[in-house]
Amino acid sequence: MSTAVGRTRPAWKVWAVVAVLVVTVAGLLHAWRNTNVLTADRLCGDLVSAEKADAVLPGSGRLDAAGDGLDEDLTDTTCEVEKSSVVLGSGDSRLTVRLWGVRGYDPLTFDGQPYPTGASFFSGEVTGGVDAHKAWVMLPEKCWTDRPVVAEFNTTEPAADRTAFAALATDTVRTIAARTRCGDLPEKPGTLVPPRSDAARPASAGQVCGLGGLTVAGQVPAGAKVLEEGQKAPADLWSCKLTLDDGTSGFVRGDGFMKYTATRDPLLIEAMRKFPGTTKGTTPDGREAEIVDKSVGFILPCADGDSLYLAVESGQQYLEASKRHPDLPRRGASVEPFVKAAAKTFGCAAPTSG
User: Fold this and answer.
1) Total Cβ atoms within 10 A of residue 237
2) Measured distance CA(174)–CA(332) in Å, rounded
3) In the prediction, which pLDDT does 61 show?
4) Burial tier of 353 (Cβ tally within 10 Å: 0-12, 13-18, 19+)
5) Out of 41-50, 78-87, 175-184, 215-224, least confident range
6) pLDDT in tens, 324-347
7) Cα–Cα distance for residue pair 88/243, rounded to 1 Å
8) What is the rounded average pLDDT of the residues 176-188?
9) CB of 183 closer than 8 Å to CB of 120
10) Contacting residues for 53 by C-beta, under 8 A, at least 6 apart
11) What does the alpha-carbon distance between residue 277 and residue 295 come to, in Å, rounded to a whole number?
12) Mean pLDDT over residues 288-305, rounded?
C-alpha cells in the first residue's frame, strides 16, 4: 500500500488564498487611506487633537499633518492638518493653525474674518470667536511676547460645527499654554453667543442695534432704509453693522455704513492697553477714557471697577453716501451718541469723583 508524497494543493485553492490575501490587504489599505486607523491622537507636535480636527473638517477621510509643534519664537508657530480620501466624491479639506502677534483690537475689527457681526463669541476663562471658516483664541497674558498673541484657525471648507471648532481652538491654545507654562485654560470654551440672526434686519427706531436711545435720524441720507446685524446687546463681546438698503452692491455694500464694537472682556481690554498707541484722554462727550491707537476706540472706566471698550468705524457705504450728500454729518457725529447709548446698555456708569 502506498501513500502520496509531495501531493500539491489544487490550483483553485491557491488562488482562493491569494484572493483572500489581496482582499485583506486592499481592505487594510482602504481603511488606512480613508480613515484615521493608526493616526496619532495628537498632531503637529502634539498641539492639535486629531479627534477634534476630524470633527471640524467636513466629510470622511484620513488626517495628515505638517508642523513640528511650537517654534522657539512662539509667533513663528504654524501647523497644517489635511483630511483627504480616495473615495469617489470625497473632497479634500485643510485646517491651518498659526500664532500671531497682534494689536489688541485686531480680533474685533471688520478688516478680516471672522467678521464680528457673523461670528459666535465666547468669553470668560477663555476668549475667542468662531464662524464657518475661521476661529481665534487669545493666549493668556503670560504667553504674550512683545505684543498680545492670538491663535488663528482657518479651514478651506466650512467647519462641520461651530461648537466643535471652538472646542478645537480652545484645546489647542490650552495645550500651548500648558507646554510653555504661561497659563491654565479649561478644556472647552464657555457658551457661544451667536448673531441674532443669519440675515440683516430693519433697524429699530430709537433702539438701533439694541442700544436704547440710539437713532439713525439725521445720521443717514433722508429716506434711507437701514438694516442692522450682529449679536444681541449687551454681551461680553458684541458688534453691530448698519447697512443702507440702497442700490450699492459688492464690496461697498458688504462693508456697510457704520460699524460698532463693544467688549467688557478683561483679557481683550488688557491687550489694548498693552498697545503703545493707548493714551489717557476723553470721549467726545467729555467722559474720562483711554484712547486706543489714535481714536480707534475708547476704554471707559466703569463705576463697578471694570472697563468697557467701545469703537466706531465708518464703512464704504458712508464714504460713498458722503460724496452724494454733502450735508451728511461727519463720522465723528455718530461717536458721541453711540458712546452714551452703549455705556448705558452695557451698564458702565462713570465713576464718581472723589
Assistant:
1) 24
2) 41
3) 85
4) exposed
5) 78-87
6) 999 999 988 899 999 999 999 999
7) 43
8) 94
9) no
10) 43, 63, 81, 83, 95, 168
11) 9
12) 94
Could you tell me whether strands 93-101 and 120-122 are parallel, antiparallel, or unpaired per DSSP bridges?
Answer: unpaired
C-alpha to C-alpha distances, 279 to 107, 263, 274, 282, 295, nearest whole angstrom? 20, 18, 10, 10, 10
CB neighbours of 16 closer than 8 A, spacing ≥ 6? Answer: none
- What SS3 string covers the chain? CCCCCCCCCCHHHHHHHHHHHHHHHHHHHHHHHHCCCCCCCEECCCCEEHHHHHHHCCCCCEEEEECCCCCCCHHHCEEEEEEECCCCCCCCEEEEEEEEECCCCHHHCCCCCCCHHHCEEECCCCCEEECCCEEEEECCHHHCCCCCEEEEEEECCCCCCHHHHHHHHHHHHHHHHHHCCCCCCCCCCCCCECCCCCCCEECCCCCHHHCCCCCCCCCCCCCCCEEEEECCCCCCEEEEEEEECCCCCHHHHHHCCEEEEEECCHHHHHHHHHCCCCEEEECCCCCEEEEECCCCEEEEECCCCCEEEEEEEECHHHHHHHHHCCCCCCHHHHHHHHHHHHHHHCCCCCCCCC
Question: What average pLDDT score do residues 175-194 get?
Answer: 94
Cell of 14: 491557491
Dihedral through CA 198, CA 203, CA 209, CA 211, nearest 10? -150
Tens of pLDDT, residue by residue over 248-293, are 889 999 999 999 999 999 999 999 998 888 999 999 989 999 999 9
Please give the model's pTM, rounded to 2 decimal places: 0.86
Among 41, 88, 31, 89, smallest CA distance to 62 is for 31
Confidence of residue 67 (pLDDT cuts 50, 70, 90): confident
pLDDT at 88: 46
Specify whether the CB–CB gap between 228 and 239 falls below 8 A: no
